[in-house]
Design a protein that fits this description.
Elements lengths: L1 H20 L12 E11 L3 E11 L7 E9 L3 E10 L2 H4 L4 E19 L12 E17 L4 E15 L16 E14 L10 E12 L8 E14 L2 E14 L8 E3 L13 E3 L1 E14 L2 E13 L11 E11 L4 E8 L4 E7 L4
Antiparallel strand pairs: 1-2, 2-3, 3-4, 4-5, 5-6, 6-7, 7-8, 8-9, 9-10, 10-11, 11-14, 12-13, 14-15, 15-16, 16-17, 17-18
Length: about 350
């Protein structure tokens, strides 16, 4: 519990520093109101044909805040509702020193046909099982920009995952860790050195980020574990071509961690071209390289490569089974968010993805 005590002390320190700074920094000009919305009609390998709606409203209250709503449903059974609020908005506070920021996210993303292939790098595509995965997550984070490039964030997270509809016979159903309900109640801290020119459309800069998250036994369905992570991102541009690169590693420390809480690679945000959560284990590593360039007006394109691996121990990640996939995609740039469509290829599958925001 020593890590827990340290995290709680640091969380208190960040909250206190942020609160003390609110009244000491003069107000800034807020500018005009931005409202962007986008109807969703799409096909995704993992979710099938779907439709929905995305909207972002920024600075409607004149306090540099933003509200983000996503509604989505698909033929393969995804039901996604996401509501987020930020004050001030992440793009407006990027590259500034600020005393206090608050981000609150509620995310419900039910997958009626979620895939499980096994645990570890040796899991086989042919061993795929389907079950229903229904997570509800609430996160509240406070941050402070101590300088224009140094940001500290403290977050509280509660996530409940309902899992059911296991195949009989199968590998998931007999395992007591895969009970119908599992919870995550955690406190997390993040320290980030961030020189990006923008959050939405970065063309230059670095991100060096360290995360520590401590899960606590807050309910009878919750386990105690620690997650450590480190990420590096780099952006540079020449003429209209932007080179973007990312590499990160994560590790879970703990006992009897449920399958649904292991670290995944595969799908929309890690390694495009292999199915969602194709590989699961206690340690994961992900690398991405993209070349981004304009096509016409607000439409852009991306070509690149993704790579990733999992292992049970940190020392084994380099010698693990690394999946490398080529990717290509289109981007539609709006003032408050980015519409993203990607295709990835692997020896196992062709992945077609639709989402919002850059992968990194």
């Amino acid at each position: 519990m020593r890590i827990t005590a340290i995290l709680l002390c640091m969380l208190s320190a960040v909250l206190t520093a942020a609160a003390q700074g609110i009244s000491t920094v003069p107000s800034q000009e807020t500018g005009g109101v931005d409202w962007n919305h986008f109807p969703i009609v799409m096909y995704d390998t993992d979710v099938g044909f779907g439709g929905g709606y995305k909207t972002v409203l920024r600075n409607a209250l004149g306090s540099r805040e933003s509200f983000d709503l996503t509604l989505f449903a698909s033929t393969k059974g995804e039901r996604w509702v996401r509501l987020a609020a930020s004050w001030p908005d992440a793009e407006l506070r990027q590259g500034t020193a600020y005393p206090f920021a608050l981000d609150v996210v509620l995310d419900y993303d039910k997958m009626i046909s979620n895939s499980f292939f096994g645990v570890g790098y040796a899991s086989r595509y042919d061993d795929r099982e389907l079950y229903t995965f229904e997570p509800l997550e609430i996160t509240a984070a406070v941050s402070r920009g101590f300088t224009p490039t140094l940001v500290a964030t403290a977050a509280l997270r509660f996530k409940r995952i309902w899992s059911y509809g296991f195949e009989i016979p199968g590998r998931l159903a007999p395992d007591p860790r895969n009970a119908s309900t599992c919870d995550i109640g955690s406190v997390a801290l993040q320290l980030r050195h961030d020189t990006r020119s923008s959050v939405l459309q970065p063309t230059a800069g670095w991100v060096l980020q360290a995360d520590v998250e401590q899960a606590l036994p807050v309910t009878d369905f919750a386990k105690e574990w620690t997650r450590l992570a480190g990420w590096a991102q780099y952006y540079t541009s020449m003429w209209d071509l932007v080179l973007a690169a990312r590499f990160g590693m994560q590790a879970l420390i703990g006992d009897d961690i449920p399958i649904q809480q292991l670290l995944p690679i595969g799908g929309n945000n890690t390694v495009r071209g292999i199915p969602k959560d194709r590989f699961l284990d206690r340690v994961s590593a992900v690398g991405n390289l993209e070349f981004r360039f304009p096509v016409w007006a607000d439409l852009g394109a991306v070509i690149g490569v993704d790579a990733g691996a999992v292992s049970h121990e940190f020392r084994d990640i380099a010698s693990s089974r690394w999946m490398v996939t080529p990717v290509a995609g289109l981007r539609y740039y709006l003032p408050t968010f980015v519409v993203r469509g990607d295709v990835g290829w692997s020896g196992e599958a062709l992945g077609v993805y639709f989402n919002f925001g850059q992968v990194f």
